[in-house]
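Section 3.1: Structural characterization of target chains.
Under the original work plan, the team committed to producing a structural model for every single-chain target entering the pipeline before any wet-lab resources were allocated. The record below documents one such target. The sequence was received from the expression subgroup and is listed exactly as submitted; it comprises 189 residues.
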Amino acid sequence: MSEPQTRPTPPNALDELPGELLMWVLIVSELLVFGAGLAAFLSVRITDPAGFAEAQDHLHRTGAALNTVVLVTSGFLAARALHLRQAGRRAIARWHLVGAMLLGTVFLWIKGIEYADKAAQGISVETHPFFMFYYLLTGFHAAHVIAGILILGLVAIWDDAHTIEVGAAFWHMVDLVWVLLFPVIYLLA
């Protein structure tokens, strides 16, 4: 008597996601929050394009561009750490994670300089709707950078390839959000 043959189950799209499903739920929900914030920013901007353009002139575009390079480079280091760990190069993978964390700290330092300059100019969330959105969106992003640095630190300690993959996914979300915030807040004319 032969046993019935079972057909292989086709792969589920969720099975193909790198990392953990819950991390992807978090990433997607955070992207939706930032997307809603950017949509609100753009909607209000339509009502006062001249005021938004004038307010935008108070920003540090060079510092923001440098921060873009800093975060993209840190994302590269996080991705490289995963590849190095998968290749069995544990120590160098950890150093790449530390490098990504340090670059995250550099990002916060540069952002802090910009915030301090705004404070010295007396610019607050009440100065103009542009600055309300500026502080809300960039401040919320900075909180994610801090969380990402902590996640990368934990991943560097428990550094199996799977945890690095999960931590790097979050860090790439932080990168992606900045790559969207930078042109809309700093460059959109």
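The radius of gyration is 20 Å.
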